[in-house]
Amino acid sequence: MNNTLSEKEVADLKETLKRCSPETVEAAIRFRKLRDPEALRMVVYGVIRRYQPASAGMRLENATDDTSLIRDLGLDSLTLLEIVLTIEETLKIQINNEELREIRTLGSLNQFLKNKIAGATAVPVARQYTREHIALVLPQQPPFLFLDTAELGDETVKAGYQVKGDEFFLAGHFKDEPIFPASVLFEAMGQAACLWVLEKAPKLLSKEIKTNQIFFATLDGAHVYRKVRPDQQLVFEGKLIKLRDPVAIFSCTASSNGDRVAAIDRLVLAFGEQLVPEEPAAVAAPPAASV
Amino acid sequence: MKRAVVTGLGFITSIGNSREQVLRSLKECRTGVELFPEFAAPDVPVKLVGTVKGFGFPTAMFEDWTYPAEYQLSREQLRPMTPNALYAYCAMQQAIREAWLTPDLVSNPRTGLMCASAGSMWMAYENLHTMVTRGVTRCQPMAIVNSIPGSLYINLVSCFKLKGGSLGCSSACSSSAHALGLAVDLIRLGRQDIVFVVGAEDCNKFSILPFASIRALSVQTDPEKTPCAFDVKRDGFVGTGGASVLVVEDLEHARRRGVDIGAEVLGWGQASDGFNVIAPDSSGDGLARAMNEALQDAKLKPSEVDYINAHGTSTPIGDISECHAIRRVFTGGKVPFISSTKSLTGHGLSLAGAMEAAFCCLALQERFTPVSAHITELDPECKDLPIVTRPIPDAPRIALSNSSGFGGSNVCLVFRRWEHGE
Q1: Mind listing the pLDDT tens digit for each residue in A179-231?
Q2: Active site residue A173
Q3: Rg (CA), chain B
Q4: Same domain, A193 and A112
């Protein structure tokens, strides 16, 4: 594709990108002419940089795909709207409300735009959940809810939890040395898997799943690798191995700051009238995940 | 009933951006009016404005705005603002400092805000123009909060983290006088300990020129002659903008804090003409009733009043109506000195009531009677009244401030000098 831009279009682009760097304007012109994906990234970074407050904890240079636009880059929701409006106008696209709600990280923004530009049938980005939203879905509630954020993919779940230090059980686990219990790590991975089942499985199985019907059934190959202390940020990742009514089987890991903390090779959630499926053996055992 | 006193003032006005500057302008009769570059085009029949100095609004984009260096606003604070909210922010800072209000007193459930502005006709125009010409989704995110009359309280509450009651009053040119009246009631009923009273208005062609079509604006070009309330040559008002802030406080609360008291607000009154959407009732009946209400509320006899800061916009009919109203109230014996400070500042519309209330506080505290500027020949219809055409030695003890708005909305506020050692 090699479109030419009229003088007026270039002037409009410069007006839209007023206060952005000249490189950003160049990139925007290149993108509009050539659809160069690298230019797209430069436009996004240039627009964010123009709006990012000086007080933000993280500069864009140090950002990764996981960087949260609001928490890490210090953008409030209104600034995010300003960014979106500027990007919309620059790229000549529309971002609807539904799509906007899912854009939380730099990675999800880039991915979204890439998809959007690629064609009309944009692949939706992973669905994002806040703690409040999670509490509306899960039967587990504070103080026994160990997920602050979650992101659901087609067969994946990724959740985050900040160990606050004031969790009720840390007072006794252990005396004078608060360590996040292994059992709660496994519980948190179970909760993440539970969220996936309640949100995704009903559609896939064409079956209603009630929150009081879902149980932790089996836990195979559970490992803990490191101690977790207050203030650590935990990331739980689950991957669906199999979904067949009435069970869902996941492999899960927990990590903190990139270090592996715990893992479960095979976590089985059962949903139905019975606590444990009568024939769990009927479910094909997956190959043991290497940890 | 509790008593309401004024413990702090703040000014961004055509005659000064601080208490000191305003005081000097009032005492030395320095006008804030000048030829307004925005009105230079030959098809604009109006040339004069009471300009606000030290601020620049070259575009509707807040990042292009300039303001005095002593004020610091973050991008998030400035982003939802109108020009009038920015003026008000600066005036608030002055008032907070003068009243020695600590952050915990500013942001306190017992501290409220009663304010008034007409919103920003300019920003509303820009926002709606964008929406209509470039599409609904191009309308900027702040389009509502930086347009509507509520934008003033919206901005101030969030900037100063105010926690008490907050309200934007809307009664045209009596709006901020109403705000002060309501604040006084809140204090007297014990519902708040402190209330910020804020009047603010944009100062541009969008806030002023629409008045040209009803021929309410002066078409004179010499700021040393116009506006000239009560003069036979007056031909309309001159617009202005800016902001004024009064900190109204419960007397006992102020005493406990040990803060200097500027004046006491003894009472207020309001009444409507029930007459016409624009024209005042030339009999002065509505304003006279407002003044009588105010005096009754203040438990004062008319003869105890020393000075009236008139609404006095310098329109031919408005000034005459006000004179009739004053004659109706002050029937026997002494008639108080009368002046219009709008002849120096221009007419601040929603700002006028609070600005002139603050001027009254200055006059009482600093012991001077403001002059009604630019009078060379009193209108014969005003001649019997003691209009202050040149400096006089008298210092008022009791002052009234009149405000009248479109639709015949009239407010009168009563202030008393606070004596040393009281």
Answers
A1: 999 999 999 999 999 999 999 999 888 888 888 888 889 999 999 999 999 99
A2: yes
A3: 20
A4: no
Is A230 domain-assigned?
Answer: yes
Catalytic choice (A30, A33, A173, A223): A173
The alpha-helical segments, DSSP class H, found in B212-370 are 251-257, 285-297, 316-329, 342-345, 352-366
Same domain, A53 and A102: yes
A269: CATH: 3.10.129.10
Whether B328 has its CB under 8 Å from any CB of chain A: the answer is no
Positive or negative, the CA dihedral A268, A274, A280, A282 is negative
- pLDDT, one tens digit per residue, over B155-170 is 999 999 999 999 999 9
Q: Which of A20, A51, A89 to mutate to test the interface with B (most CBs of B within 10 A)?
A: A89
Closest Cα in chain B, distance from residue A68 (Å):
19
| Residue A60 C-alpha, separation from nearest chain B C-alpha, in angstroms | 18
Q: Does a cis peptide bond (omega within 30 degrees of 0) precede residue A246?
A: yes
Topology of the domain covering B4-417: Peroxisomal Thiolase; Chain A, domain 1 (3.40.47)
Q: Is residue A16 included in any domain, yes or no? A: yes
DSSP strands (E only) in B55-201: 111-116, 166-168, 194-201
Which residues of chain A does B141 touch, with a Cβ-Cβ cutoff of 8 Å?
Answer: 78, 81-82, 85
Domain enclosing residue A21, as ranges: 7-121
Q: Which amino acid is at B328?
A: R
Nearest alpha-carbon partner for B261 in B395, B398, B99: B99
Q: Is residue A87 part of a domain?
A: yes
Q: Could you give phi then psi for residue A12, rounded to 5 degrees?
A: -60, -40
pLDDT value at residue A103: 84
Beta strands B166-168 and B48-50 are: unpaired
Residues A152 and A268 in one domain: yes
Q: Which pLDDT does position A289 carry in this prediction?
A: 44
A203 and A115 co-located in one domain? no
Q: Which of A86, A121, A156 delimits the end of a domain?
A: A121
Check if the interface score ipTM surpasses 0.90: no
The list of chain A residues with pLDDT below 70 reads 1-3, 119-126, 273-291
pTM above 0.95, yes or no: no
